Amino acid sequence: MIYGLIGDFMLLLGNYWLFWFGIGFVFLILEVATPGVVFLFFGAGAWVVMALCLAFPMPPYLQWVVFIILSLLFLALFRKKLTAMFRKPGGGRTDSLSEPMFANQYIGREVVVIKAIGPERPGMIELNGSNWQARSQASLGEGQNAKIVDLKDLVVWVEPV
After folding, report:
1. What is d(CA 34, CA 32) in angstroms, rounded to the nearest whole number?
2. pLDDT tens digits, residue range 49-65?
């Protein structure tokens, strides 16, 4: 039933290559909108089928078979390599504030406490004109100066000056 509807739509469209171009474009938009690398390979499969439709006339059922086989083949062959290119060597995210590249520029800087901080109670500090969640081993009152000693995720660890 569904194949018949899609096949009828493709036939109504008259240009199979245009259908596959649109499908590939939709998959690429989905790739940008979702995490992970999966839809990219289905978009590539659709665009290869588009090129094949331009070169050789194929019935719709064969186009779908080629699309599925190519997409799964691309996924199996290239996903691991492509995701490894975007992952940092130790694994995990590359934009973490706890990375030495980011943390080193802030460690040792003096900041002002804007919401009291206690050993069991996070507070807030002002850093570069922005408010950041802060924690400390010691109690720090509002308006007191503190020194940054560490950054873990989006939490700044401070100590009294």
Report:
1. 6
2. 999 988 888 888 899 99
